[in-house]
Amino acid sequence: MSQTGAPRGRPRTFDRDAALTQAMQLFWEQGYEATSLNELTRAMGIRPGSLYAAFGDKKSLFKEVVRAYARSPVGAFVGIALKEEPAAFQAFARILREAAVIYPDPSHPAGCLTISAATNVAVQDAEIAAFLRDLRNANLVILHDRLRTAQQEGELPSDADPRALAGYFAVVIQGMSQRARDGADATELAEIADMAMAAWPRGEPRQGPPN
Fold first, then answer.
1. Which of 24, 40, 109, 180 could be a cystine partner for 29, CB 3.0 to 4.6 Å?
2. What is the mean pLDDT of each run of 10 residues along the chain (211 residues)?
3. What integer pLDDT is reported at residue 105 of this predicted model?
C-alpha cells in the first residue's frame, strides 16, 4: 500500500558562511555571555535543531566564529602586517595605524571581537574565557618573537626588553579596541597610535618609519 501525505524531502539547507557572519555580528556586539541561543537562531535564520546539528552547542559555534573572524580582513591585519613589513618598526606602526581605522569602522561592531567578547564571560563559561585568553597570549608570543628577532638583527638596541615591549603594544592594541567601543573615532585612535610608536626603543640604527 502506498504512503500518503507530503513526501519527505531533504532538510532545508542554509548558507553556513552567512550564518556564521550573523553569529559573529551578535557575539562581537554583545559579547559571549549576553548573546542568547534565541537571538543566534533568529539572526542566523535557522532553528535550534539546525544550529546544534551544524555547529554543536553555543561554545562550539562561538569558537568557529572566532576562527572565522581571525581569517577575515578585520581579524587578520596584525599577522598580515608582521608578515609583509620588512622591519619590526614598520610592522608595529602599520598594526596600530590599521587598528585605528578598523576598530571604529561603522560597517561592523566596534573594537576587536576576541577582546570585547571576553568582557562578560560568566564563571560557568570558564572554558570560553580560557579559550580567548589563550588566543590573546598566543598573539602576545607572536609579537614578542618578532621583537626578539628584530633585536637579534640589530633593529632594536641590545638593552631593549622584547617581552616588556610586546606586552606594551598588546596593551595599547587592547586599549584602542576599548576606546573604539566607547566611541573614539579614527582620528583619536591614530593620535594614540602615533604616541605609542614614540615609545619605540632608540639607541641603534633602525629602518625608518613608514611613509
1. 109
2. 43 77 94 92 91 92 95 95 97 98 97 85 81 94 97 95 98 97 98 97 56 45
3. 97
